[in-house]
Amino acid sequence: MIITKISQTHFNNGLYDLETKSYLKHDLVHFAVDKALGLYNDEDPTTHSEELEKVAGILHAVYDESVTNARILEGADNLFSAFGKERPFYLTDDFVQDIRTTVHTLFHRYAALKTGESMELA
Asked: How far is Cα 113 from Cα 54, in angstroms, rounded to an integer?
């Protein structure tokens, strides 16, 4: 996936022009989760299961340094139990830390881009 900074407020993810504030962090979390699980599909990077949408939503918390991995996992337990399910087996402290590291690195790379520049997520 190639992400291009269109302006300070918009980027293109290879498929759509999107508003940065709402979508950039979400796209970066999804990319990190998909890559970590070996599920990334460059042909159709926007197709996700219901479970992966929940996991990505929970993992938005990795952007907040004050939210611990344990707190994220507790939130995951609560969310999945509300649907009568257990937290996915792969959603562990190490997994959360890996996603936290990956998205922070990608977010800082994106922030350093000038308007019109791109970065490839691989």
From this structure: 29
